[in-house]
Amino acid sequence: MGPPLRLNAVAFVSAQNHPILIRTFSQPKQDELKYHYIAHTSLDVIDERITAAGATKSTGCYLGLLYVEDVAVYGFMTPTKVKIIIALELSDNVVRDADVITIFKALHTAYRRSVANPFLRLNVPSDNVTDHSLLVAAGGQKWKLFRQRIDEICGAVTLPGAAA
Amino acid sequence: MNSYPPELLAQLAPVMFVAGLDVPSPNPQEATPSRQQDPFAVLKQRLRDALISQRKVAIWQPEKAKIFQAVLVDVDVRFPPRKLAPPEDQQYQPLHSPLSPLTPSSPLYPDGLIAPIWIRKHTTLVPSVFVLFKRIYEHPQPPPNQTGTAHADFDRDREAEERRRDTELAAEIAQRKRSTNERSIKLTAVLMASRRMLDDPALDARLTFIRRQSGLDPRAALFVLSPVTQAEIGDFVRSLQEALYEPALEYYTNHSKRVRRKRNKHSQGTVHIPVSPLGAGNSPRPLRPEGWTVRYEYKMACFAEFRGEDEVALKHYQDTYAALLVMFGSTAILPPRTKRWAEGKVLADCISVKICKLYLYNKEHAMALAHHSAHMRKFSDLSRGWGIGEETFEFWSWLSRQHRVFAELLEQGNWSTLEIPKHTPVPAPSAAKLAAQAAGPQRNAMEAEALRLLGINPTHALQHPGFYYYMAAQCTESRRERFLRALESEVRSIHHGSLSPGFANEKKVDHLAIVLELYTRAYEIFKKNSASPQGRQQLWIAYRIAQTYYASGKFDMAVRFFERIAKTYRREKWEAMLRPLLSTWYACAQQLGDMELSVQLLLEMLGHGVVVDQEDPESVQEDLLAVLKSTVPSNPEQSLVVDLTESGPLLDSTTIFWTPTISVGESSAFQITLTAPPTVQMSDLPFSSLHVHFGGDLPPVVIEHSQPEGDEGTASVQRIDLGRIHAPHPNDGPSPPTDVQANLRWPTGSSLVLTGSLGADFTTILMVTKLVLTLKQNSWTIELPLQPNSSRTGSICRPQWLSSVDPVRFLPIRGEAHSSVTVQNRPHRVSVAVAHNSPAYLGEDYPVTLDITNLDDRELNVVVDVLLHPLEVEHASSDISLDGQNSTSLVKGVALGTLVPGANITKTLILSVKGAIGDRTLDISVQSRTTGPSVANASPPSPNTSFTGDTAESLRTLVIPSVEAIKAEHTVRYKRPAKLSRGLGDLATFEADYSEDAGEAVVSTTMACIGQSGISVESAKLVREDGTRAKVRSSFIDVDEESFLSEWLTGDEFCDQCLISLSRDEDDTDDSPIPGPGHYEVSWRRLQPDGVKGSLSVSRFPLPQLRPPKDGLIALLDIPSTAKLHSPIAIHLTVRNQRLVRSANVVVQFDLDPLTDGFVVAGLRQGRLPVLLPGAEYRMTWNLIPVECGYVQIPKIKVTDRRPVIDAQLSSTNAAAIAAGGRPPQTDGEEVKIVDVRAEAVVEGSEPVVADSTRRGTILVLP
């Protein structure tokens, strides 16, 4: 295990590039908007990576380091094209891809479980399983468990001892 | 980069002084008459151009070509003084360079480190090589016609003159040589001579003379050049530099060596740096040892860079940088905020840039970025100690400059050779590959590689320069923020005066212009590097640019940016980002006084629920009302349309139809719900009317606002009934517009529900296309179109149906909510009944009855199509026939005429089933069409509603199994001919009509009725088709047809036998079966259940193929069936050789056992028959007298063919074996079958009864 990573923000963006949930953990809370912008601009790099991956027939979900600002931004795209973006605090250490992938997989699982919530469809008119607004709604204020899961993952990342 | 001395940043290259290429400024008086230019002037000009243009001073120049930095100088240029003797104490003070900190007149005196002027000295004042261009003297051509003595005189004159001129030239060069030797600079002379001169044999001698006289080096010191073309000049310049490159390197190496010596002496502490007497007192301390280390290392780095040794240079620069850090680490060595401190900082920054650059030359991107970040980090730490930490604008200014310089460096690199690495993740290598790497020889390298595969350090991931410009811009924004704060505190504490000298300067800085410039550069680079068509990164930077424009008061520019950015943010629903954008945009619009835009933005902000002021959530609405009340639109005549469908709509709207489909003339209830969001205050917006637009020709319904009496208008749900809205037929005039009144005010969370029903008299699709809210205030008219179904992001609108207003109750709508209603024609009530008696018999015309009844109240025109599906069974064929139309697949458009209500028509479809049994599939389509315009009464005015009568179709699919009515089975028995066939030699066999008797066949045919319904057989006969090999001799059916003609019911069987005589052809040698010589033909009618007989059908059953048995050698035993005791009877044995080629040697043995056999025999007991040729037979007779009664077995007869024994003896070497005394093989030959002709009529296929030793026939002996 490398040095602990500090997770500053997590963003889920839908296949149509609509934001699903953006969760920030950095200490000054007013930065929240900044991570919206970071998530949005990351979509460009994700697009680029996907095009490149399509050319090389690569099938991995992990898109690697997207860019570095005052945080390091990593990207991941699920098979349903939901993009997960995380911002890690910069530290002068090698960030192991395996660690980042672990975080992404945990986040992906959290999202999957939240979307599988049957109550999400309680008042939905159509029976369309892949209804886009539904997938976006999973990040809505109403669904606290999703946020809670994400927060738990963040806690586990920042304090690796607790996770073990 | 402009903020740093260019000398400290530029890439250094060996310096070459070039003298003697001054072109005399063209004299205007001379230039015009002589167009012919002096070739040497052209040559000089070209040389100048070639030398100057080959290299530009730049920061990024990684190429290692041997190219000099050429500096054009005067011929008699003077070098700066090498060492300056101090004005006093000349005796014992060592001499120092005028730039040395030890020289009081130096700018570095007494404690400076390195000044840009030192680099400038080495790049512009002192060369490493000196190239001197000179014309060699050329004596004029001798006059053409000279006599001997005159010629000799001329030559003598010429030689003397040349010698004199050469001596002068040599002296001039020698003088130059002296000055260059002083500094061990290589001097090279290039003598320019005309082409003619080059061929002069005396030239070599003259050149040698000049070189000797002037003291030039023997090597690469003297060139001769004649006026040549441009290309050749390039070659010359290249070869000149090639030749001089090594001396240049040597020159810089010597410098390095000298500096290293000094440094070593210095570090060993052997040299005591004298304290200048002037240094005493208040003046600052002289340069400390650390400072000298910096100087020496820096100089060595520069000299290495001159030599192009990047790695050495990097090493020295790093040492310099380390030494500098040591100095900065102590405020004692380098007191902050002094001049030297500032110089040192600039030097450190520049060295840092050089280190980064050298790493990048070597493609070590991570190292470069690591150094860059480390530099910023270290100096940030130091800055804190110096009191210019993060809270000061100085710090941010410096940091911004670092980012910017780095960005500029990358950008310059990008123009030529630098490539920014991509940080795509590498796929994890397989375990085998890792193991192979671990076992490999270069383990360390592999480990490093493996480590890199694990992941990257984000701080070492180099990105394109746009990012660094962006960060520089952000730092500048922070700088401005700190500056404004400082300004504020200055204003507050006005008496204390200015705090720092830098502050005064800072006031002159236009921060926003810098920010804008940096953002713009970042934007351009992002744009260049972006592969995504969306350009979200650019949008983000554009947003920053727009904010900067706003801050600097260029509102119109900001608005243009906002407009573009908002499009993408709206489309992708990033509301969190859209809200601050809208606020700033609105502020811009206010500043610009663009009222339409303000109104538009305020409405959009309402839609997004933007709250400008946290304390006053209604401020947006109030702002909007204030704008509407206080201003007038630019064009009051025209209403302002604010379409918010792309962004968030003002009101959530849902439109639901109760049923998705209705018939013409009916109507479907609908509800349109307009709900205000629960968080946004908009109850005071003065909406005046709401238009509901339906599709098609329906007029819009207008709902006017009416203020309700009293305060009861605050009900959360308001229901307005619009009544029944019926789409008129196009021929009717437009129906009068419906006007309804409602309270068009939406308190938070309240809803307006419009109910009604919608229908039409023609087929169409009805829906609500658009809702338009009109807002009126003073001269403002604003139209807000709304989609019939839309909701703000994040809220899923559950479809519900208002069932009661008081109390408010909604029915949730399950399943799909219908947003449109389809009006269809009423279905035609046509009953189609199909009757038939399955299964169909093969060969029959099978009737299917269609019974069509019009149960509707309209007249219907009925047309029938029948499709017969093809059947995938071999030989199967069938066709259909309806109303005279025949087809094997499709009968189309059989018109059955018009059926009045209640009328009924019956049609019979005939299906003929032929070939093979199998299921036949029929699709019957009955199309009905209303006959006339029952609703509309005139021809249609528009094509899209043209009335052609509506059609409907009812479909029936029939699967009709088919079976055979009669099944016929045959059994065949064969009899051998009793007669002897004619011999081979009989001439009659050559007759044309000769046919050899091959016995006869008896065919028994059993015909059974197996269908479900009986049949009535009307005729039954055997139709003969006699062939050459088989002829029907007689048949029972010929005799008694009558007994067949009756009604056959299921399971009935009738049998017929027919006798067929067979014959054989000579050439009929193969085993092909004989085709049956006829067929039975049975004509029958089906017996319908109602007793009616169906159509006449004919079934044919061909006689089977015949395969008479083929014998080779056979014995036929003819015995009587009965005998009388003691009366003799004769039995005959006929041995027949029916083989085609081989003869037969037959031995007959008649074994009579006197004890058991009840006969007395007269005849041959054992004997050999004559040789039987093929086709021959031999008949022998025994007379038997029975002596017992009852079934008496006939005695045992054995017939043996000896021929195989003889064959065996002949064909092998048995003859020799016999001669040798061996026994011949004990074979008695082949036993021949004996057939009892009484039982000979064998059933086909089974073995004939053989009267052999085990199963012998019997004779009934009667007393």
From TrEMBL, chain A:
Pfam families on file: Sedlin_N
GO cellular component: cytoplasm
InterPro entries (UniProt xref): Longin-like_dom_sf, Sedlin, TRAPPC2L
Record-linked CDD domains: TRAPPC2L
Superkingdom of this protein's organism: Eukaryota
GO biological process: endoplasmic reticulum to Golgi vesicle-mediated transport
Family designation: Belongs to the TRAPP small subunits family. Sedlin subfamily.
Name the UniProt record assigns to this protein: Trafficking protein particle complex subunit 2-like protein
Species whose genome carries this gene: Cristinia sonorae
From TrEMBL, chain B:
Domain (Gryzun putative trafficking through Golgi) ranges: 646-912
Residue ranges of domain Trafficking protein particle complex subunit in the record: 340-607
Species this protein is from: Cristinia sonorae
Pfam families in alphabetical order: Foie-gras_1, Gryzun
Ranges annotated as biased composition (Basic and acidic residues): 152-167
SUPFAM superfamilies named among the record's database cross-references: TPR-like
Protein name as catalogued: Gryzun, putative trafficking through golgi-domain-containing protein
Source domain of life: Eukaryota
